[in-house]
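Page header: ASSEMBLY MODEL / two components / 592 residues total.
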Amino acid sequence: MSDKLLRFEDGKVTIGGKDLLASSANLSISPKLEAERVYGDYDSSIVGAKTEFVKFAPVGGLTGKLSINFYISSDKFTVDGNPNSIERMFDIVAGMDERSINNNIVGRYSFNNMYLNSFGFEMSPFKMVMATASYDIYGSIERVIDQRFRQSDVNFAHGLKSFGNILASGVEQNEFEISKLKYTIVVNRKIHDQIRANENTSINTSPSGTVPVRCSVENIEKEMRIEGNEIIEKINIYGGKQTSSVAEGIEDSKIEAFLLSLEGEKVARFSAKGKIQTQDIAISEGQHAMANITIKEIIK
Amino acid sequence: MSYSNYEQTVIINGYELLGVQSVDGSYGISEKPIRVAGVGFIDALIDSPLQGNFSIGRKMVGYDPLLEKNIYGKYKFDEEEINGSILYENNTKGFGFTKGRVSRYSVNCSVGEIPDIQTDIIVYGQLGKDVSMNPATKENKNIKYPDQSTIRVTISDFSIDAVSSFAYSRGINVNAVYGLPKGDSSDWENSQASVKNLEPIQIDTQYPIETDINVSIIADQYEIREIKDRIQSAPKSDVKIEILDSYAQTDINTFEIESARLISEAINSTVAEEMNISLAYKGYETYHNPLV
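Prediction written out in full:
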C-alpha cells in the first residue's frame, strides 16, 4: 500500500510516454464556472422579483496547465547517438504536429489532451543547464498508482562544457563575454470547438466533458537572450548592425547555444537568427556594467 | 618519506618569503545534488568555479616584498594577481598556484614580540603540483629585526601614550567574473569550446578597501573623548605605524591610514594589569578618487 503523501522519489513525470528528469512539476486543472443568477418568484414586499443564485454553470471545458523544470541530458535526448532530439521531443518546428500529447503522468495523476505552450532553458557558467516547459491541458485527470523509474550514469548538459556565440549581423563579436544565456520558444495556438459535439449530452458521460477538437498552431516564435559585457553598437532601425552607408542587405544577427555534457558529449544545439529586438546595459553600485541582448526568430 | 620544516621554501611572485611560520593551502569544489522526480538522487555535479585558499603566517624579519607599491603609491597586491608555491625536496616538488589575489593582509604585535604577518590569498587560477614551480628569481632585502623600542605608532590628532599592542588589517573584497565558454559550429564538430573560460574573465577589487588599526595604550595622559563630540565633529586622523630595524634604526615596513576615523574606544581595568585603552581606527582607500 502506498504512502498517503507521495514522495518525491515515487512521483515520476512522464510526457507523451517518455520519462523526464524533472526537478519540479506543477499541475493545475480547473473548470470554468460562472455563478448563474435568475429572477426568482414574485415577492410582494417589493412588488417584484429578487435575483436568486441557482448554481455554478460551466462556461467552458476543463482547462489546466503543466509547468515543469527539468534537466537536459544526452541519454534522454539523443537517438542512435544523434543529438538534438529535444526539438523532436518538443516538436518545435514550423510544421508542428497539432495532435495532442497523450499518456502524461505527474505523480499519481495521468491525463491526455496536452499541448506544448513554451519550452526554454538557461545556462550559466559552471551551472547545470536547466530547462522549462509549459503545456495547456484539456479534459480531466485520473489517479494512477505511484510510479518510479531508475536512472543512473546520466550525462547532464552543463555550463562547464556548453558554449555560446553571438554574431551581430553576421560578424563575430570576439570582445563579447556571455555570463548567462536564455532560450525560449513560444507556441501560440487557437482552440477549435465543435458546437454540435458540445451540445450533445454525451459529453457528460465522462468527467473530461468537452475538449477541443483541434488546437491549431497560430505562430511559433523563438527568442534568445544573452547577458554579458557589451551591447551591439551601430544598431539601426531594422534591428541590424549597420557599419556602412547602406542599410539594405545587412545580415541577420544570431545567438547560438551548444549544449554538451560534463563528459563532453553533444546534447543539443539551438540558435535564434533574426533581428535584435532589445538591448540594454545597466550599471549599479557594487557590480559591473551588465548588458542584455535579445534576438527573435519567427518560425511560423 | 616526510619533509621537515627546514626543507621547504615558500615563493611568492619570485621572492622567497622570510620568517614563514605556517602555510595552509586548500581548494574546494562546490557540488549540487541532482534529484529527479520519480528517481531521487542521481548524481552531484560541480556548481561553482574551483577556488583555492592560501594562508601564510610569518614573523616580520625584514622588508615584506608583498608590500611593493605601484607608480601611484598603491600596494600592487590591491589590483594585481600573484603566483606562488611551496617547494620541497630541493625545489623539485611542490604545490603552487596562479592567479591569486590577496584578500586580507594583517600585522599584529604586542610588546616584547616580533610582529606577525598574516596573508590570506584566494586562488582563481591553477592550483596543485607542477604549477608555478619556479624557484626564487628575485633577491630579498637584508634580514632586519624590530624590537619594542623601534616600533612607532603616530596618530595625528593627539600625542599617544605608551602603546602595548597594535593590530593592522587590510581587507580586500575581490569579485571574480566568469563567462560561458565560447565557440561556434566548428567547435561543435570538435565537441569542445575553443575558449573554455575555466578561469575568471576579470577579477576586480571592490572599493573601498577597508583598513583597520587597533591600538592598545596604557592609560596615562589620554582620556576617552565624549562620544557626542566625536559624532558631531567626526574628525579624521592620519595613523602611521613605523617598524624600524633595531640595529640600524632604518625602516623595515610602514603602514599608514590617511583620513581614518576613530570608530571605537574602550577602557579596560583589571586587578592584575595596568589600565589600558583600546582605540579602533577605520580608513577607506579608493580606486582613484582621493579622500581628504
